[in-house]
Write a structure and sequence with these properties.
The structure holds two protein chains of two kinds. By secondary structure, chain A is mainly alpha-helical. Chain A has a single domain, classed as MetI-like (MetI-like fold), CATH 1.10.3720. Chain A is 78% helix and 0% strand. Chain A has twelve helices and no strands. In chain A, helix 3 runs antiparallel to helix 10. Chain B has a single domain, classed as MetI-like (MetI-like fold, Orthogonal Bundle), CATH 1.10.3720.10. The chains are: A mainly alpha, B mainly alpha. Chains A and B meet through helix 1, helix 2, helix 3, helix 6 and helix 7 of A and helix 1, helix 3, helix 4, helix 6 and helix 7 of B.
Chain lengths: 284, 294
């Protein structure tokens, strides 16, 4: 698993850790197996087998009648639109919070040394902003987008708009965290050079931090957009627009050929977004 | 959530030629135009109404809703139920991720080009078209299988499996396992496709067969990355497992669904707090394991 020469684990640790880990893992595994109600024979018992057969045979051929397809067109486009604006709002939320939540930019490191030396009030303010931003990001991130969607449906009513807000908030938390990680990882030499020639904070940011971080930003944001397409397709489950509402209806009505059609639409859509974002990434 | 984006290096200087500058400027204009059109179109399509969000009416509504959430209900019954749901969610995510590893591991070796039909391992093979074609079949099958598994979201898999095996946490495990299996299969495949070829060459030169090369030349290189990707997906899965219950697949989501449907806002907040704690713990655990093992 690891090259022995590079290991940073102390020898006493090294002998102890694997056993403890194995024991805990075995415990978690067997307890989880029981709790999750895993039943490997489920597919071979008559009930499971019958429904499997019914499902698979019911799926073919997919329902490609014009009537159904034209009904699906709008939710499919809506899914893309929700994902696009959701990601945009996520960037608007994640970017400022990500900056505030970057340790080396706000409080630590050689760049802030001169400013914060002997200025306890300023230091406290900076730390306050830093911790607040981190806490807000982690709150946004840890509550799943479904729960956000539920709450926004209560606040602004049914339709695609709560879906946009849910994706914006949940993905804003994720993007913010990754943005701050990217900021932490930039090369500090140019920043110090800029500071040494007398650039102020804003100038250092725009000429030092930002150009270094931009390619990674764009690439990660596009990756998140792909995820957002998938997420907004299923937010319909809570009445927030998108394709999933229809999947659920078709599942409940046992119209499996419609399910297959929607899955094909989803497949095509995700592939298109994949392709588009690969193109944009290649252009940068 | 710490999928490290690949670092871009600029090893070529941008060309300063007048022609390329002009054409790239035209391209930029075109791109910005397209993006702007897309933006407006999406704004209307998604029925975004920011003024509505900040209007007095819905602001009041939000305030009323938030007030209803507080204080969280910490009575013994609710806490017990939340705890049970939390442990169940943990179990679903763990078993789901393990199932995903099993699925990904069985498929991925057929789905990486350099292991199945081209590259160094097959250089010396006599050029027999039909043999190569025969190898392409499992490759393409595996590749498209992974694509299908990956494109269908967990929630949809959960709906399907609830129909197939009934309500409860088990369909949740299957849904997570199948979808994540597709994702991990793709990630593992990418790792496998850019392994360092020198050890393979060395092994081949000593006369090792392909299976030996796999075990001694390739797997030791890729396992740390496999572990790290698996832990990363586990972090994602714990969040998904928390909401899979919305379609009847057990865990905290089921209890959240009940709390929302019955307007039990105070219990809802307790459950949200439970999610928050669980997700934070798993994030730390996974970061710790990654440090230890990779």
């Amino acid at each position: 698993m690891k090259a022995s020469g590079q290991s940073l684990i102390r020898p006493s640790d090294r002998s102890f850790f694997p056993y403890l880990f194995a024991a805990l893992f075995a415990l978690a595994f067997f307890d989880s197996w029981r709790r999750a109600g895993i039943d490997l024979s489920a597919f071979f018992q008559p009930r499971g087998r019958d429904s499997l057969v019914k499902f698979v045979t019911g799926m073919f051929p997919p329902d490609l009648s014009w009537n159904f397809l034209s009904q699906m067109l709008r939710p499919a486009l809506e899914t893309v639109q929700i994902s696009f604006w959701g990601t945009l709002i996520a960037v608007l939320i994640g970017f400022p919070l990500g900056i505030l939540g970057t340790h080396t930019l706000m409080v630590g490191g050689i760049l802030n040394e001169a400013e914060l030396q002997g200025a306890p009030v300023r230091r406290a303010l900076r730390y306050g902003a830093y911790f607040t931003a981190r806490a807000v990001l982690s709150l946004f991130r840890c509550i799943p987008e479904f729960v956000w969607a539920f709450m926004f449906v209560r606040a602004v009513g049914l339709g695609p708009f709560p879906g946009v807000l849910a994706i914006g908030v949940a993905y804003g938390g994720m993007l913010g965290k990754v943005y701050s990680e990217i900021f932490e990882a930039v090369n500090h030499r140019p920043l110090e050079a800029l500071q040494a020639v007398g650039a102020n904070k804003l100038q250092t940011f725009f000429y030092g931090w930002f150009p270094q971080a931009l390619p990674n930003f764009v690439s990660y944001t596009l990756y998140r957009w792909e995820c957002a397409v998938r997420a907004s397709a299923i937010l319909g489950l809570v009445g927030a627009g998108g394709l999933e509402q229809q999947i659920e209806i078709s599942m409940r009505m046992f119209n499996f050929n419609e399910v297959l059609t929607i899955l094909i639409i989803l497949f095509v859509m995700v592939a298109a977004v994949d392709y588009l974002s690969a193109k944009v990434r290649a252009m940068l | 959530m710490s999928r490290t984006p690949d670092v871009k290096t600029y090893d070529t200087m941008p060309s300063a030629g007048r022609r390329t500058l002009n054409s790239s400027r035209a391209k930029n204009f075109f791109l910005f135009g397209a993006a702007a059109v897309f933006l407006v179109w999406s704004y209307h399509g998604a029925e975004i109404d920011l003024s509505q969000l900040f209007s007095r009416d819905s602001f009041d509504q939000i305030v009323v809703y938030v007030k209803k959430l507080f204080p969280p209900d910490f009575s013994t019954v609710v806490v017990q139920e939340a705890l049970k749901g939390t442990i169940e969610t943990f179990a679903i995510s763990l078993m789901g991720t393990l199932l995903a590893v099993v699925i990904a591991f069985t498929i991925v070796f057929f789905a990486s080009r350099n292991l199945i039909y081209s590259g160094l391992l097959y250089e010396m093979e006599p050029k027999q078209g039909w043999k190569r074609l025969l190898r392409m079949v499992p490759y393409l099958t595996a590749k498209s299988l992974l694509n299908v598994l990956r494109t269908i979201p967990e929630m949809v898999w959960a709906l399907i499996f609830v129909f197939l095996v009934g309500l409860g946490p088990f369909p949740g495990v299957l849904a997570l396992g199948v979808h994540t299996g597709g994702v991990l299969g793709k990630l593992f495949g990418e790792v496998l496709e850019d392994v360092d070829s020198q050890p393979i060459e060395a092994l081949q030169a000593t006369g090792a067969n392909r299976l030996q090369i796999l075990f001694y030349g390739i797997l030791p290189q890729v396992l740390p990355q496999f572990v790290s990707y698996t832990l990363y997906r586990w972090e994602v899965n714990i969040r998904v497992a928390a909401v899979l219950g919305l379609v009847g697949a057990g865990g905290l989501g089921q209890r959240i669904h009940i709390a929302i449907s019955l307007f039990l806002e105070k219990q809802l907040l307790t459950l949200i707090i439970a999610i928050y704690i669980l997700v934070t713990i798993v994030d730390y655990l996974s970061a710790y394991l990654r440090r230890k093992m990779v």
